[in-house]
């Protein structure tokens, strides 16, 4: 299988052609972020020097995000254009995963750090596990899915995970140069920094990991492909911050199912599916409230939602979600207050409970303002990423 790999997610522009277990060519430049001027010429040079017939390519693996918004768009447009012209699939490879793949077989916990500006990094945690059988190689396993967080958050997570087993952590990526001093000050575990030869994005890693994803059936048509930004662009954030969105709260209807399912998927690593919400509509002891806007300039009219289940006279609250662009506008608080009132009036509930990730500080503060108090902790309850569940209760 012959795969073209592309990565323009950061300062590095990289293109490679990988066939089976051989890298035929790789062109990588880490000099100024002018990918719109360099990526196509790099591809053309690879084609010329290797006498590559583009029609012999089986797929295109692209670093699909996160990363520089402009860089991702350039890479995506290049991949889509080639994919449409050649009628071949695109393999979307998570950028941070591909960066970790630089250290295939490494025994340390691998932590890529990409500078995301605004005091955040794009990061994740990875390890390589030996496959069974001689010569079977290693599998890249995700310990913490790629995310945009502050450096202190990811270092805190590393300290929590690695202090007990004395495991070493390997840092790489352009974020290391930006945050080296802070890493040194915050890290309480053994760590090291990757050398210059393998501490940045490489298209050959995108292609190699892409081949593994392709074997698992993870691919898409060129028309379907779109970058995964992980967070809103500055323009989108500013628009959301200044917009005074009017909305009303009501019960979920059949026509809301697709939007509610998409909302759930955008907010949770282990989301409910369409069928789960559909079954809610016929469950007399369960209700899902939505915050809906009628604003004509907003594509998704369902801005948030939350679930209440009546269990023997007690209210179990779950699935509290608000679209990223509209957080901080007290939509979650309004939904929760409506849900509590709904539970009291319809079911006569006087005691409500919910569970929240221990690391979800904004949500915990909201619930405390509403009168919820901690009654216990379920250790390691959540996955993707692993986290404790704080059990909260509210009487009356």
Note down, in words, how this protein is organized.
This protein is of the alpha/beta class and 396 residues long. 33% of the residues lie in helices and 32% in strands. It is built from 11 helices and 17 strands. The chain has a 7-stranded mixed sheet. Strands 3-2-1-4-5 form a 5-stranded mixed sheet, sandwiched between helices. Strand 13 and strand 14 form a beta hairpin. The radius of gyration is 23 Å and the shape is globular.
How is this structure best summarized?
This protein has eleven helices and 17 strands. The chain is α/β, with parallel strands linked by helices.
Topology:
Elements: E1 2-7, E2 13-19, E3 22-29, H1 35-50, E4 59-65, H2 69-86, E5 90-94, H3 95-100, E6 109-115, E7 121-130, E8 138-149, H4 151-162, E9 169-172, H5 174-186, E10 191-193, H6 203-215, H7 234-242, E11 248-251, H8 257-267, H9 274-280, E12 286-292, E13 302-311, E14 314-322, H10 331-347, E15 351-357, H11 361-369, E16 373-382, E17 387-395
Parallel strand pairs: 1-4, 4-5, 6-9, 9-10, 14-15
Antiparallel strand pairs: 1-2, 2-3, 6-7, 7-8, 11-12, 12-13, 13-14, 15-17, 16-17
Spatial ordering of strands, largest sheet: 11-12-13-14-15-17-16
Structural class of the secondary structure composition?
alpha/beta
- Mean pLDDT level: 92
Order of helices and strands: EEEHEHEHEEEHEHEHHEHHEEEHEHEE
